[in-house]
Structures are given as structure tokens and as C-alpha cells.
Amino acid sequence: MIRVIFWQGTGGTFTGFTVTGHAGYRPKGEDIVCAAVSALAQTAVLSLKEQLEEEPGVSIQEGVLDCRLPAGLSPAGQEKARVILKTIELGLKAIASDYRQYVAVEYKSRS
């Protein structure tokens, strides 16, 4: 199962996201669920790198993508990050709704 965690700070603002696991919907190379989640997550990282004044912290390993927003973003940077992360949130929640056995989306506070 793929697990997506949206990390939240004070006031519920997103501070990043983590994607872990594999869907297991189909064999590797044929798994449309995994491909869809990966495409959204990677697009978010690329968009954040392009749009923010400082790059997010990104760690990618086998089965894990972790993206943390930089501290001290300007108000404009915070708004850009919010729009990007809300956009992928919508897409990931739609995938999770259609493929409940394979994708879960949750929200946690980052301590």
C-alpha cells in the first residue's frame, strides 16, 4: 500500500509531504496506481523547486519520497507552496478514493 502523509504546521498549513510504499495493484512497470501517485509527487517537487525562492528539502530512496518546505518562506512563497500542495492533495485524494486498498492519505503534525 502507498501511504501519503501531508505534514502540517501551526494553523494547519502544509509543511511538506511523504510518500511511502508500493501500491501492489499490478506488477512493477504495469502499476497505474503507483505511476499516478509518483507522477503527482514528482510534479509537486519539481514545481516547488521552480516556484519557491529556496528549494525544498527532498529525499528520495526506494519506496520513499520525502519533501519538506524550507523554513522562513516569504508570504508569496508560502502561497505558492500552498497552491501546489493543495493541488496534489486533490489528485491524491481522488486516487485514494478510487483505489482504497492501494493508497491512503493522512495528515500529521510535524514535531
Automatic annotation (TrEMBL):
Pfam families, per database record: Peptidase_Prp
Highest taxon listed in the record's lineage: Bacteria
Alphabetical list of Gene3D superfamilies matching this protein: Cysteine protease Prp (3.30.70.1490)
Keyword Transmembrane: no
PANTHER family recorded: HYPOTHETICAL RIBOSOME-ASSOCIATED PROTEIN, RIBOSOMAL-PROCESSING CYSTEINE PROTEASE PRP
GO molecular function: cysteine-type peptidase activity
Hydrolase keyword on record: yes
Recorded coiled-coil stretches: none
Protein name as it appears in the record: Ribosomal processing cysteine protease Prp
InterPro entries documented for this protein: Peptidase_Prp, Peptidase_Prp_sf
One GO-annotated biological process of the protein: proteolysis
Keywords associated with the record: Hydrolase, Protease, Ribosome biogenesis, Thiol protease
Family: Belongs to the Prp family.
